[in-house]
Amino acid sequence: MTTADAARALFLDRDGVINADRHYVHRIEDFEFVPGIFELCSTAAELGYRLVVATNQAGIGRGLYTEADFQRLTEWMLDVFGQRGIRIARVYHCPDHPTAGIGAYRRDSFDRKPNPGMLLRAQAELGLELRRSVFVGDKDSDMAAGRAAGVGHLVKLDAQAERVHRAADVTVVRSLDEASTVLRRLETAPVGSRSGAP
User: Residue 1 domain-assigned?
Assistant: First the structure.
């Protein structure tokens, strides 16, 4: 597969990007979509991005909820997106935690962000060109995972627009509406400027 043939992805963290981060969300009644997420995903799909979720779910490993709870919530979430004509290509999750995990979940998994395992799996399974892809997350670990995987564009959602410590290769946005603007801007950016933040 050539670079021209490879698909590009919009990688999304879940808690804090798709839904409000409210301490190990695992029930439908506690799941609140972040404003702008449907518009961002629709924009990405229109521009030809595959939509991929990559989420740490250490609450499973900590025994706070089960894999079945996570899958049930995920199926509901995908259905809500589907009702809006949005298809999520794949959802990857890592249930492990290196110190707080219980039993087999207590391990330093290559899939757990800031490690790039989930993104590299998506690359292999979906035929993605990571240098042409975008990762939107709200934590430094999201940005580190994207960087380690070689994702070309890193976008950090920070409602407080914290600018005290910012990596040069990360675009900081205050809302998902701003993230949609970043995606559209990338379409018109000169080719030579597409290896880093716009």
Answer: no
**Domain interval for residue 130:** 8-191
Judge whether 196 lies within some domain. no
Q: How confident is the model at residue 159 (pLDDT cuts 50, 70, 90)?
A: confident
What pLDDT, on a 0 to 100 scale, did the predictor assign at position 162? 59
Query: 32 vs 17, 19, 52, 94, 198, CA distance in Å?
Result: 10, 5, 19, 21, 30
Q: Is 13 a catalytic residue?
A: yes
Tell me, what DSSP letter sits at residue 33? B
Residue 94, classified by CB atoms within 10 Å of its CB into exposed (0-12), middle (13-18) or buried (19+), is: buried
* 136 part of a folded domain: yes
pLDDT band at 2 (very low <50, low <70, confident <90, very high): very low
Is 140 in the active site?
Answer: no
Q: Does 133 fall in a domain?
A: yes
Q: Catalytic pick from 13, 96, 111, 142?
A: 13
